[in-house]
Amino acid sequence: MCSSDLAAVLAQAERFAVAGRGGDARRLYREAIEEQVAAGESASRTHWLIATTFFAEGRDLAAARALDEAAQSAAEFGDPEMELRATFEAAVLYAAQRMPEQVSSRVERVRRLLKSPAVGPEVRTGIERRMAQR
After folding, report:
1. CB 63 within 8 A of CB 29
2. What is the radius of gyration, based on Cα positions, of the chain?
3. Which of 80, 75, 87 is CA-nearest to residue 42?
4. The model scores a pTM over 0.85
5. What is the pLDDT of residues 72-99, one digit of tens each?
């Protein structure tokens, strides 16, 4: 799949998501992920998009797991800001599901990532502010 085909698949998936067709959107997002992985590209943003479809359906645990996948992909490609955001949001969702072990491990990773010089001040400040509220 060339980049324009991938862009078309992602655009169609977004239209499905906006229309409330989460299952159809996820199917296309997963196709896009397969292509991104095969091309040696990060799929973290596409995993994030899958998480948003689950979240929109009130499926917080599935959303948290998709965010874990986004964080893993981001880590593999050296994107600490995306890893930080995805890991933090997963921790929030696991907390809502009363899963303290998952929360603890993710908060530990968040704290390490907050020390990374590669994380911009606005991302760092936003996460720190939200952590202070919890």
Report:
1. no
2. 15
3. 75
4. yes
5. 999 999 999 999 999 999 999 999 999 9
